[in-house]
Design brief:
By secondary structure, the chain is of the alpha/beta class. It contains ten helices and twelve strands. The chain has helices at residues 20-32, 48-58, 69-74, 76-85, 104-123, 145-151, 164-169, 174-180, 213-222, 239-253; strands at residues 6-9, 37-40, 61-66, 90-93, 127-131, 139-140, 143-144, 159-163, 185-190, 192-195, 201-204, 227-230. The chain has an eight-stranded parallel beta barrel with strand order 1-2-3-4-5-8-9-12, surrounded by five helices. The protein has a two-stranded antiparallel ribbon with strand order 6-7. The N and C termini lie close together (6 Å).
């Protein structure tokens, strides 16, 4: 992993991204924290042209986005248009909202929709990934949902946006799962996992928790991962400060 491959998932800073002026101010701080790339997500209303102007002005690239699941499944042409405007090559299906993960028919409907939309994006030279949480690690009839999802889609049409925290929370091993996704692990979320004073699992800055990121990142690199995106769903203070701490640790200990 090179420093230029480390990106910030802007969902981490969502409370600081309500208006275009908020976005400009926060992106400047993200760049000052050392990041050269961002994943666009969690923003208030802003046009692609204005957002691209801000990104270019700060020397940042948009390496990926999160778009709504409904738009990805039902309006892939709109997704393609947005990515092209942002000069971005990748997006991810963020969450299976409205999908009954207790029902194989519902799961297979999602799988078929992702295959169709992923094929449309691939034809435009773009990539669609699936962002996992913990619930996809449930087994139905002896098969993990996440395994069914990737087994029944074409690697060229659906890649993985592996989230290390949620793999761990779901009972999986992040490094092993990286290995299983060889050839289709395009981007990943680096998100650390710790047990807090209330004996509950929670999010923390990369390098501050229990995950073995040296092993995880080595496995991801061997599987072809292009972007290592730092995300922290909740932070103890200023989210940009947490992103900066994670970036420092990665540069000092991994790169």
């Amino acid at each position: 992993m090179k420093p230029s491959q480390i990106a910030a998932q802007l969902y981490t800073c969502r409370d600081l991204l309500k208006t275009p002026s908020d976005i400009a101010r926060t992106l400047r701080r993200v760049r000052e924290a050392g990041y050269q790339a961002v994943q666009v997500s969690g923003m208030g209303p802003i046009g692609e042209d204005e957002l691209l102007r801000i990104l270019d002005g700060e020397g940042l690239v948009c390496c990926a986005t999160h778009e709504s699941g409904e738009m990805i499944l039902n309006e892939p042409a709109r997704v393609i248009e947005r990515l092209q405007k942002l000069r971005c090559k990748a997006t991810a299906y963020p969450y299976p909202g409205g999908i009954d993960l207790n029902n194989l028919e519902s799961i297979d409907g999602l799988i078929n929709g992702l295959e169709r939309s992923g094929a449309a994006l691939a034809a435009a030279g773009l990539s669609l990934s699936y962002h996992n949480h913990h619930q996809e690690f449930r087994k139905i009839n002896g098969e993990r949902i996440i395994d069914r999802l990737f087994a029944r889609t074409t690697p060229a049409h659906l890649k993985a946006e592996l989230d290390t925290y949620w793999v761990q929370f779901g009972g999986g091993d992040p490094a092993t799962f990286c290995e299983q996704l060889a050839g289709r692990l395009h981007v990943m979320h680096l998100k650390d996992y710790m047990i807090n004073a209330d004996n509950q699992p929670t999010f923390c800055e990369v390098g501050s928790g229990n995950l073995d990121f040296r092993r995880i990142i080595a496995a991801a690199g061997k599987s072809g991962c292009e972007w290592f995106i730092v995300e922290q769903d909740t932070t103890p203070g200023d989210p940009v400060d947490s992103l900066a701490q994670s970036h420092r640790w990665l540069v000092e200990n991994i790169c």
